[in-house]
Every structure is written in structure tokens, then in C-alpha cells.
């Protein structure tokens, strides 16, 4: 069974970067206290949380982008889950209470242009077409809806539900 760990939980009043919090309260619409600069594009029940892997952020940072966890606007930074294995419809248990369902990959986002050249680094034609064989698949993150709300903390295990 696939599993990983929650590295960071992040929120902002809207926009990026998001900042780390010691604990998150997950509601049907996402993390309590998290805002969205463009609510018609981000947020809502189908885009309640954005997940990005720590490995992806580290890969982009090694390529020269000045990124830290939360810099891409993700609410949850994960480690140990291969981003190229993410698929819509998967359900993941986070800690003892929270269950999420992956709903859609994050598409190109103008807000990310604050990091010049990052769009080309995280998207290619295959990723844009929804093909997980792309080496860039998942670098932009994936959205999730909330199946079961609750509390989450860095260090919580994330497990693919059967």
C-alpha cells in the first residue's frame, strides 16, 4: 500500500507563498484560515486542498528556482508519495481523522509567474494533455476534495485507501 508523510501544512490570506502552521483543521472547503486570491479559480469543494510533493519542490529548487515548502501555494507538502503515481479518484487517509480524494491536477497558474520560467519547468505537452508518463507530471500539484474532515499535523502518515 502506498504511503508517505505530511511534511508541512500551509495557509495564506490568499496567494503565494503560503506559510507553515503547526496544525491544520480541515473542513469541507479546505484548511481553516486559508484564503484564496482568486476564488473562482481556487478553492471550493472540488479544490479544497492543493498537494505538492517535497521531492518536486526540491527538484525545482535544485534547478535554480528560489522555492521553499508553501512557495507554490500548496496547502499540504508531502514526502514519500511519488507524484507520478497520483491519479484523480484516489483516496488518501491523512493522520487518524482526515480522508481526501484527488480531484484534478493543477493547471498553469499565472500566480506562479512570480518565479520566471517555472511554467516551462512544471508543464510540458504531455502533462498539459493529462498524460502521467510526462517527467513533469505532478510538479504543479494536485487538488483534493474532503471526504472526512479533522485535524492534521506535520509528521502525520498519508496512506492510500484501499
Structure commentary:
This protein has 162 residues and is mainly β. It has one domain: PK beta-barrel domain-like (M1 Pyruvate Kinase, Domain 3), CATH 2.40.33.20. Helix content is 11%, strand content 33%. It is built from three helices and eleven strands; from the N terminus they run βββββαβββααβββ. It has helices spanning 54-62, 118-122, 125-128, and strands at residues 3-11, 19-21, 24-27, 30-31, 49-53, 76-79, 91-94, 98-105, 142-148, 150-152, 157-160. The strands form two sheets. A seven-stranded mixed beta barrel has the order 1-6-5-9-8-7-11. The longest helix is centred in the middle third of the chain and has 9 residues, at 54-62. The chain is globular, with a radius of gyration of 14 Å. The N and C termini lie close together (8 Å).
Kindly state the number of beta strands: 11
Report how far the terminal alpha carbons are from each other: 8 Å
CATH topology: M1 Pyruvate Kinase, Domain 3
* CATH class bucket: Mainly Beta
H-E string: EEEEEHEEEHHEEE
Round the Cα radius of gyration to an integer and report it: 14 Å
Q: What value does the average pLDDT take? A: 94
β-strand amount: 25-35%
* Order of neighbouring strands in the sheet with most strands: 1-6-5-9-8-7-11
> Which residue ranges are poorly predicted, with pLDDT under 50 across at least 5 consecutive positions?
none
Ordered list of secondary-structure elements with their pairings:
Blueprint lengths: L2 E9 L7 E3 L2 E4 L2 E2 L17 E5 H9 L13 E4 L11 E4 L3 E8 L12 H5 L2 H4 L13 E7 L1 E3 L4 E4 L2
Parallel strand pairs: 5-6
Antiparallel strand pairs: 1-2, 1-6, 1-11, 3-4, 3-10, 5-9, 7-8, 7-11, 8-9
Amino acid at each position: 500500500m502506498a504511503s508517505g508523510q505530511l511534511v508541512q501544512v500551509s495557509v495564506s490570506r490568499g496567494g503565494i507563498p503560503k506559510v507553515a502552521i503547526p496544525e491544520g483543521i480541515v473542513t469541507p472547503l479546505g484548511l481553516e484560515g486559508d484564503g484564496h486570491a482568486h476564488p473562482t479559480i481556487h478553492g471550493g469543494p472540488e479544490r479544497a486542498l492543493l498537494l505538492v510533493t517535497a521531492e518536486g519542490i526540491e527538484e525545482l529548487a535544485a534547478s535554480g528556482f528560489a522555492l521553499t515548502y508553501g512557495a507554490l501555494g500548496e496547502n499540504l507538502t508531502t514526502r514519500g508519495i511519488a507524484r507520478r503515481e497520483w491519479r484523480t479518484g484516489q483516496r488518501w487517509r491523512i493522520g487518524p481523522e482526515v480522508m481526501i480524494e484527488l480531484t484534478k491536477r493543477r493547471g498553469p497558474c499565472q500566480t506562479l509567474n512570480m518565479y520566471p520560467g517555472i511554467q516551462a519547468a512544471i508543464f510540458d505537452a504531455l502533462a498539459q494533455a493529462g498524460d502521467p508518463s510526462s517527467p513533469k507530471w505532478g510538479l504543479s500539484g494536485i487538488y483534493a476534495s474532503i471526504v472526512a474532515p479533522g485535524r492534521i499535523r506535520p509528521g502525520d502518515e498519508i496512506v492510500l485507501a484501499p
